[in-house]
Amino acid sequence: MPLYQDAIGEMVDAFARLPGISRRGAERLTYHLLQAPPEVADGLARAIHDGRHSIHYCQRCFNLTDEDLCPICRSNRRDKTRICVVEEARDILAIEASGSYKGLYHVLGGTISPMDGIGPDDLHIAALFARLETEPIEEVIIALNASVEGEATTLYLISHLRDKNVRVSRIAQGLSAGSDIKYADHMTLSRAFDGRTEIQP
Amino acid sequence: MPLYQDAIGEMVDAFARLPGISRRGAERLTYHLLQAPPEVADGLARAIHDGRHSIHYCQRCFNLTDEDLCPICRSNRRDKTRICVVEEARDILAIEASGSYKGLYHVLGGTISPMDGIGPDDLHIAALFARLETEPIEEVIIALNASVEGEATTLYLISHLRDKNVRVSRIAQGLSAGSDIKYADHMTLSRAFDGRTEIQP
Predict the structure, then answer these.
(1) Considering only CB atoms, which chain A residues are within 8 Å of B105?
(2) How do strand A64-65 and strand B139-142 relate by DSSP bridges?
(3) Whole-angstrom distance, CA of residue A15 vs CA of residue A44
(4) How many CB pairs under 8 A join A and B?
(5) How does strand A139-142 pair with strand A167-170?
(6) Which SS3 state, helix, strand or coil, does residue A9 take?
């Protein structure tokens, strides 16, 4: 006898295919939705369907949007002389939530990763260089993950931005806020020392 | 400016309302679905919608089913003289997966919890007693969670089953498989000693 009905199994399978959701987690979500008021399940199903069919990439920066350009590219209140280069659209959420940046963005859509067969041409790098020709960009801020691939992609971008007549910077690596030196890994400490800032007397 | 578009926000909100999914987790799922092939999002939306509209409670045992009776109640291969009483339908999954029981079930739909205003009349207890009148039940096995509410509900059931002319048992509490005595909590050890089984010489 099958463990559960087809319709239940299909829900569990669909949830278990999502990142970070185990089979047990998928069962938990399924049984919750099946026993909650029907509006809860219908609301979720509708939000997923409507979202997937209305949202696509911004034509300029590859953020996600339901119009041609994303709200950041459309806004008049952003500093149009700076582009922050990120790996994926979700990184924009985190940076915006921190309130630490008011310029534009450019989403690469990944990082250079020869192991996975991803080269520069598979990312939105040509589109970034094209924006430097048509927009009044003065500074490119590279904000990629502090991973091996992020590092390789940062070095690739730096070397190709050298002759573009823009300032290029990258966000700092070092101790994360609230962290303890005695628990920090070697690489973090080494980068924190390399990136030390001089105190003005 | 809003952090994300309405359609994205609605997906994030809908996911974040599910149990065990944080706001960050909801953002992760949303951005994954928006960037995966449309079939992934459509398949999930359809599975949720179809599941919610085809699945309901078994009329006999309150398991979840897409027919009048669940597959366990319909089966001819189950021991119809035993009922295992569980808190929720999902518990049946775990017990079935363990292969340790071949009888019928009865889902209470919760536990007695005066703090939450849940009394015996809010659970499927009357339906359980009614089944003892109409079905050839010889043993009721109580398999509720090892929580305060599970314990209270077990004691309530035991006292009310006393005059029903059935054997009543409860599943054992003690060390979980693979666990270490030195890390076990006091309550677990105390129950393991209370429930010790004599070795036949």
Answers:
(1) none
(2) unpaired
(3) 12
(4) 165
(5) parallel
(6) helix
What stretches of chain B show up as alpha helix (H) in DSSP?
A: 6-16, 23-35, 38-54, 71-74, 89-98, 125-134, 148-161, 186-194
SS3 (DSSP) at A111: coil
Q: Which of A168, A164, A142 is nearest to A84 (CA)?
A: A142
Measure CB to CB from residue B47 to each of A5, A10, A47 and give the nearest one.
Answer: A10
| Residues across chain B | 201
**What pLDDT score was predicted for residue B1?**
47
Q: What's the pTM value of the predicted model, to 2 decimals?
A: 0.79
Helices marked H in A18-146? 23-35, 38-54, 71-74, 89-98, 125-134
- DSSP-assigned letters across all residues of B21-63: --HHHHHHHHHHHHHS-HHHHHHHHHHHHHHHHH-EE-TTT--
Question: How, if at all, do strands B56-57 and B64-65 pair?
Answer: antiparallel
Q: How many helices (H) does chain A have, and how many strands (E)?
A: 8, 6
> pLDDT digits over A17-70, tens only?
999 999 999 999 999 999 999 999 999 999 999 999 999 999 999 999 999 999
| Chain B residues closer than 8 Å to A71 by CB | 1-2, 5
Q: What is the ipTM of this complex?
A: 0.80
CA distance B53 to B196: 47
